[in-house]
Amino acid sequence: QSWSPFLLGNNLASGENGRNTSRSNHLFDSLRFSLLTEAMVEASNDTGANNGLKHIENMVLFQYLVHTLEADFVPRHIAYKESLDWVIIRESVLNVLLGSRKLVFKTFVKNCISLLNQHQREVEDDISSKSASDLDSSLTISSLEFEREALISVKKLFIMVINLDLIRQEADKLGLTSRADGLRNPILEVILEELTYNTIYLSPFLLAFTEWKWKLQIILQYFSR
């Protein structure tokens, strides 16, 4: 039976934390979402035909999930700017997802960096450089298009988490948070740590990550270490 990163059936009734809830922020299964990114990283290193189909399936699912996170987070972000009500952000699907003990945040970010770099390399491979047999393969052409979309989705996810971290920092300063909100290293710190210890990731990451504001900040902090 194929799995889904959504909690369904009996799992939905109990919720991730064992509470009886129907709130949308418990629809995501953090562990399965993390496993999805791991599967995408592994699939990027395997060119088998069967695995190619599975990889496309995972990329489509990942894009859909990021879109779902974005649809929930963006209006909450706007509402928070107007009200400074931390509860609006605390109950966002993204915050609940990343705050789960089932998801190891550093590993998750590392996998996303790998995805960003791998998809960037795939996109840079021009179709004209493929062999004639590859050009005749609809799977190859479709895969390249899905790689482009997956690249965009990873970047969207990074930007959302960066914004979430900024809101959390502001809420901390205003005394709006509590111990119940948990602790997590900001994503920029995790990215910098990963790029520092794995320097081979630096160049492809900077090529792929096109958000200039945060790209510049990463570069400045990287060279100030």
Number of strands: 0
The quaternary state of the protein chains shown equals: single chain
**Structural domain tally:** 1
For the sheet with most strands, the description reads: none
Q: What are the low-pLDDT stretches, counting only 5+ consecutive residues below 50? A: 6-26
Description:
This protein has 225 residues and is mostly helical. The chain has one domain. The chain is 70% helix and 0% strand. It is built from eleven helices and no strands. Helix 2 (30-44) packs across helix 3, helix 3 (49-83) packs parallel to helix 8 (138-173) and helix 6 (105-124) crosses helix 10. The radius of gyration is 19 Å and the shape is globular. It starts with 9 loop residues before the first helix and ends with a helix.
Secondary structure layout plus pairing:
Blueprint: H1 10-14, H2 30-44, H3 49-83, H4 86-90, H5 93-99, H6 105-124, H7 132-135, H8 138-173, H9 187-197, H10 202-208, H11 212-223
Helix pairs in contact: 2-3, 2-6, 3-8, 6-8, 6-9, 6-10
A few lines on this structure:
The chain is mainly α and about 220 residues long. About 70% of the residues lie in helices and about 0% in strands.
What labels would you give this structure?
single chain; 11 helices; 225 residues; mainly alpha
